[in-house]
């Protein structure tokens, strides 16, 4: 369909610039073509913060992608304060206050073992029994004084700075990223020598730690298959991580972490890369959608001719699934499954038109770089974002594309970038409408 009038009435908006919002499964919306005209190249990340920008500049290089990624460790240094605002001790205190001991969000490790959270809790009666109500502050403090390491799993889900950086890394590498936090105050290790099943970036936020690296004993290991490997005894390298440092460890690299007796925090960004097994499962799901894929395999005593025919048809079916472009389709679908983290902010509930757009107010474009902007239609642009298609009038294209290219700018900067295309009142109205459908957020200066 080529006209807005062809879109169902319930999907249309009474707006001048943002014309309609639909789900991608709505058949009446023009299908998104495989080739689109876009703003920035989706393979070039647009960092959302200074911490992200600093990290991306170091790792998004031809040398890293060719010689380091999935192959060997790499230690990088940087400004001591570049990751300092990713998390503060006050943030950790709030997480401790608000997280239920029944949740796996928080864990405590001491010399290779997890500590039972039940011994750290105050309990309250429930239907004649007891349930853990919250952490006992004195018990937690004593445990940490004794040398335990505090772990916050999936910090990116509950803490916006970590989630924002994880969004950028997911756009960069195309796979899911999980952020864990590790904090300690003494010199005892939390875990014994071990390896991780993800590609891991370690960011040293506060203090220092010594990492002992032992190499790999199995290439590309999977926990489900290679869990019984014997840990090496002698480290090949010792790396002291200081504030602002980054350490990259490929999947399967044996390591142990040793605090140095002072307060320290590091974050791990685990990239859950896809492997051949994931691709095989994806193909199996598609084979199940075919009549042949659901048909029975010939029984053991079937004539050899029947078995040979089945094998021939099986190869043909798999060949059809693996025709040219199948790997790109797999990659695109994996990217679409990586829903970016967008923390609820009640200020976004306020109607954008009610906001006073002063020159200094900062406008942030929220969709990440995996979203698309299709400019093929002469009447409108189509933005795909989190399962939605948002149709914007062609007349608002200068504002939309400027915001997408720059990610974040002041209202004054946006007026300068779109000068001659739209009046100030029209730019203000366009921004307000984009805010109302969740494509941009507004932040007061200072």
Number of helical segments with 4 or more residues: 13
Q: Rg from C-alpha positions?
A: 26 Å
Give the second-level CATH assignment, the architecture of the largest domain: Sandwich
| Percent range for β-strand residues | 15-25%
Low-confidence stretches: 25-43
Main sheet characteristics = 8 strands, antiparallel
| Helix residue percentage | 25-40%
Strand arrangement within the widest β-sheet reads 2-12-9-14-8-7-3-4
Q: What's the domain count?
A: 3
By CATH, the topology of the largest domain is: Jelly Rolls
**End-to-end span in angstroms?**
45 Å
Oligomer: single chain
Number of strands: 20
Per CATH, the class of the largest domain reads Mainly Beta
Global shape: globular
Describe the secondary-structure layout.
Elements: E1 18-23, H1 50-59, H2 62-68, E2 74-76, H3 89-98, E3 106-110, E4 113-114, E5 121-126, E6 129-135, H4 137-145, E7 149-152, H5 160-173, E8 176-184, E9 199-206, E10 209-215, H6 223-226, E11 237-241, E12 246-249, E13 254-259, E14 264-272, H7 276-287, H8 291-294, H9 304-321, H10 326-337, E15 362-365, E16 372-374, E17 380-385, E18 388-393, H11 397-406, E19 408-410, H12 411-417, H13 424-436, E20 440-443
